[in-house]
Amino acid sequence: MAIVKINFFSESLVRNVNIIGILPIDKRSIDGEELRSPDRPMKALYLLHGVHGCEYDWIVKTRVERWAMQRNLAVFLVAGENAFYNDAVPSHNLYAQFMGKDLIQFTRSMFRLSDKREDTFVAGLSMGGLGSIYTGLRNPETFGYIGSFSGAFVAEGYPKDNSGRDVIGMRSYFETVFGKEEDFKGSAADYYALAEKTSQNKELMPQIYMACGTEDGLITVNRNFSTYLKELGYDAISYTGWQVPIITDEIYGNANIIDINTEKILNE
Fold it and tell me: How far apart are CA 26 and CA 53, in angstroms?
C-alpha cells in the first residue's frame, strides 16, 4: 500500500492545499496478494473529515488503509478546514468548486483513476457527511455514490447568538458557512433544495447511503433528510448502528468500532 502526501495549487481556493492518497499499487506477492494490473484504472473514494479535524483523521482513527487494499480502491483524504466543503464567496473559499473541479481534475491527471461515475465515490463523517452530500449532489455527473455518516445537517437551526463555547454553537460561524439564516432556504447551501434540483435528472441521481447512531444528537435531522431523499425518488439507504450491525467496544462516548457486518449493506 502506497501512502502519499500531496500539495498542489487550487484555482478555486487560490492557494496550495494538502491531500493524502492511499493507493493499492504495491501489493506484495510474498504475502499471497494478487498483484494489481498497471493497465486497469482504479476506482476512487474521496473521504471527508468532520469539524475540528483534518485529512489525517481517517488514517489515525480508522482502518481505511486495510479496506482500500482489500477493495483495490484509491482513497483520497481531503482537508475541509471547518468550511463544510461549501462555497464561502466573500472570503473566496470555494470549497464546493474545489471538490467538484480542482480535486477531481488533479487526482485523475496524476493517478490512473477511472473516470466513470460508477467508479467514483464521496463519503464523510459529520461535517464531512454533509460535505459529501454537497459534493455528490452538485456533481452527479462525476459521483455515482455518496456516503454520509452522522451527517451534520445542522443548518435547520441556526444558533441565536455567539455565546456557544464552540464555533458550531456560534451564529457568526453559521452565517460564514451557510449564509444568512433568512437567505438560506433555496440558496446554494440549502441541501434540501439541492437534492430536489439534482432529482430532476433521474439518470444522474447518485445512490446514497446514510448511517447515524440512535443516541447521536444528529439522528433527527438525518432521519428527516433521508425521508426527503426517498420521497424525491433517490435510491437512498439509511441505517442506525444496530441495524447494520456495527460492533463496538464498551467505552461509552468514545467507542471503537470492532467490526462492521457488511452483508446486509451489500445485499441491499
Answer: 29
| Residues 214-268 pLDDT 10s | 778 888 999 999 999 999 999 988 776 545 555 555 443 444 555 665 665 556 5
At 235, is the secondary structure helix, strand, or coil? Answer: coil
List all residues 6 or more positions away from 71 whose beta carbon is below 8 Å from its beta carbon: 24, 43
C-alpha cell at 59: 488514517
Region 104-133 average pLDDT: 96
Helix axes 191-198, 219-231, angle to 10 degrees: 20
Are 21 and 107 in contact by the 8 Å Cβ rule? The answer is yes
- Exposure string for 112-132, b = 16+ CB within 10 A, e = fewer: ebeeebebbbbbbbbbbbbbb
Question: What are the two backbone dihedrals, phi and then psi, of residue 248, each rounded to the nearest 5 degrees?
Answer: -125, 170
* DSSP codes joined into one string, 122-148: EEEETHHHHHHHHHHHH-TTT-SEEEE
**pTM for this prediction:** 0.88
Sequence-ordered strand ranges (E) for 67-196: 73-78, 87-88, 93-94, 120-125, 145-149
Cis peptide bond upstream of 245, omega within 30 = yes
Cβ atoms < 10 Å from Cβ of 89: 9
Cα–Cα dist 193/219, whole Å? 20
Per-residue pLDDT at 87: 87
Using CA atoms of 246, 251, 254, 257 in order, give the dihedral in degrees to the nearest 10. Answer: -30
